[in-house]
Amino acid sequence: MSDVLGEVKFSYSGQFCQLAAFNKRKEDMIAEIRMAGHQLAEPQFDNPADLVGWMGAVQAQDYDMAKWAVGVRLKRAALSRVNEALTTGEIVRTHVMRPTWHFVAGKDVRWMRKLTGMRIRKAVDSWVKSRGLDISEAQYTRCNDLLGKMLSGRRCLTREEIETEMGQAGVPVADERVRRYILRAEVEGIVCSGADREGKPTYALLDEQVAPVPGLVKEEALAKLAECYFRSHSPATLADFVWWSGLTVKEAKEAVGLISGQLQRECFDSREFLIYLFAHEAGKKPVVHFLPPYDEYLISYKERTTVIAAEHCPKAFNRWGIFYPVLLSQGWIVGNWKKTFRQSEVLLSVSVFNSSCIISEDALRKAERRFRDFWKN
Question: Is the pTM of this model over 0.85?
Fold first, then answer.
């Protein structure tokens, strides 16, 4: 992204958005608590790894925008700080849940992989079979060995470079096979993300990128995962936790039971919400953010109409799992934003879902400056 961002262009009319005045309805209380947990109201962290560790995981298939998902939750949003955390292995990008890309703290990657890896492996094997690809266990073992040799000595390679070297070694690489080789190697704890090179992600050996730490037994890992999720994502339901984590319902119930003393149960709209007991304060100023596509604020819940009107959901995500950039105002998803390019500038435009929902221009300008400054610093 260019270092020069143009001025935000707004498209709205009418009075100030009524959502900004919290009237303490349960809907607004849920949004208020979620903003605090998501670090979107009053960020508490300076260090990207501490923020990612607090969240448990941050979905990251849109690599650049996932960095902004971390940055927007820090006291000072700076791309250089997120990149440094990725370079040093304080944060890694890998497949640990559902399966899809996530950022996780380096210190957490091994116990999370041990907890969820078998389900990810089964999902990947099912995908490979459905595509008619013939990849044997012997082939995976050979590729794991090749990756170990290719990346040894803290060498970081892009996927394209790995594909080239595997092809030269006589490994079949057509039909997206290399993606499956790498994913299997991630699940087995051999590779993870490495340092960016010219803005492109790379792969490194996990044992060289992240120093080993003491492991957790399954009960400890379940409790830790539930704690991470509910302290940062609550109020949330058990179904939300199952969706986010990829755990079975039985495992998720066990995990919740292990931290039951830290949770409060509240019913709303015929659903039971679990609320993590931590101190939070309502922000005194309007909170507006340009959230990236696939942001945790939406994608980490099975039921999303708690913070977005049902009729507007298709504007935030579609039925095939594509999530769009959205505008957050006082805990509610109220519109979309997009960037367009004009010569050396990146112009941002905003559109709200409902013309009667008006957000103060000062709050939008502040959100725009925070987004622009992130890419400069």
Answer: yes
